[in-house]
Amino acid sequence: MLTSPRNISLFISILVAIVTGIFSALMFFINSSDIWKYLLVEILAIFIIAYVITFYTIRKILINKITPIYKIIQQTGNSNLNNIDSFDNKNLIEEASKDVTNWFKLKTREIEKLKKLEKYRREFLGNVSHELKTPIFNAQGYISTLIDGGIDDKNINKKYLEKADQSINRLITIVRDLELISKLESGELELNRENFNIVQLLKDIVDLLEMRANKLNIKVQVNSGEKSIMVNADRPRISDVINNLIVNSLIYGKQNGTTTINFYDMENKILVEVSDNGVGIEEKFIPRLFERFFRVDKSRSRDQGGTGLGLAIVKHILEVHGETIHVRSTLGEGSAFSFTLNKA
Ligand code: ADP
After folding, report:
1. From ligand 1's centre to the CA of 248, what distance in Å?
2. Which of 78, 170, 228, 260 ranks highest by number of CB atoms within 10 Å?
3. 218 CB under 6 A from ligand 1?
4. CA–CA dist 21, 26 (Å, integer)
5. How many angstroms separate the alpha carbon of residue 305 from the centre of ligand 1?
6. In the chain, what are the domains?
7. SS3 of 279, please?
8. Distance, CA 332 to ligand 1 centroid (Å)?
């Protein structure tokens, strides 16, 4: 009933009128020269009664109105709300309005985050299917040609089988990278830290990549004054990081170029830097390099078997180690990627 301002005012006015009437009626029976004293008592009594009635009526109405709103807010999972009973009488509306505003800001932020995630998920799915489509269709094309008679044609049968094999290998690389990145992102991947010689690991990787580097006429040199630098990290994962960085320096290197690996001592850390004098990267692209599937030069990356996931994986692996990766690059001059590791 007490929902509109008119009803509330009517209720309070009737109560105050009744109380005033009762007191005024009492005055008729007082026949004393000290009537002003009684008048004072009457005024005081009316004031107190009117105050108490107004206070409790308004408070009850406000609480009745605000409580359901709070219940709804609490159901949406906000635990930061004040307890409505604890509100200072003075600040009831102010506190409630502050809480609702904070709740609104929090929810707006959450919605923005969800929208971004949804966009990211859509883009990711689109990218994955796009990446998988090319090798699948290529392999299917070669195999269909072989089935349709190509198998008996000595000029193409072996070549097409090799091409189909290459496409399937590419699919395997993409799926392996995707698996690794989703493990890294979901926090599933546990590190197996051990002490190992980072200089030796680099030399082993460089040996394995020697043929590829020779084909591109790129010299890879490991500059380590000391023969052994012991670090504490997950060896296979750091091997992935280094492999990715050196392979990139070859893919985006120039003919007759050089890839150099340097080590810098930083007290309890060691900084590893892989630099090249290759094509370099335009400054505006640098912040995006570590996004999944981001490529500056798409065709060069695909031609060389790049999945566009390498640097995203590198960044994640280093983050799990509590480290970060840094890039310096000048278009046309070359790039340097560096990261630190804890010394053993
Ligand atoms: P990709 O498989 O395409 O190499 P990455 O995630 O490893 O994917 O690298 C993302 C992009 O960053 C590459 O496509 C390339 O444009 C750029 N990039 C990476 N390393 C270098 C480098 N050393 N020099 C120039 N550009 C590079």
Report:
1. 6
2. 170
3. no
4. 9
5. 11
6. 5-90 (no CATH), 106-186 (1.10.287.130), 193-342 (3.30.565.10)
7. coil
8. 14
Q: For 200-224, write each residue's pLDDT tens digit.
A: 999 999 999 999 999 999 999 999 8
pLDDT higher than threshold 70 for residue 108: yes
SS3 call for 276:
strand
Would the CB of 289 count as within 6 Å of ligand 1? Answer: yes
313 ligand 1 Cβ < 6 A:
no
Helix, strand, coil abundance in the chain, percent, nearest 5: 65, 15, 25
Is 290 in contact with 325 (CB distance < 8 Å)?
yes
Q: In this structure, what token pair is assigned to residue 165?
A: 């094999």
| Minimum-distance ligand 1 atom for the alpha carbon of 294 | 10
Backbone angles phi, psi at 181, to 5 degrees: -70, -35
Is the CB of residue 273 below 6 angstroms from any atom belonging to ligand 1? no
Q: What is the pTM of this model?
A: 0.73
Residue whose CA is at the smallest distance from ligand 1 atom 2: 306
For 19-28, 46-55, 171-180, 304-313, which range has the lowest pLDDT when averaged over its residues?
19-28
pLDDT of 79 strictly over 60: no
User: What is the rounded CA–CA span in Å between residue 238 and residue 268?
Assistant: 18
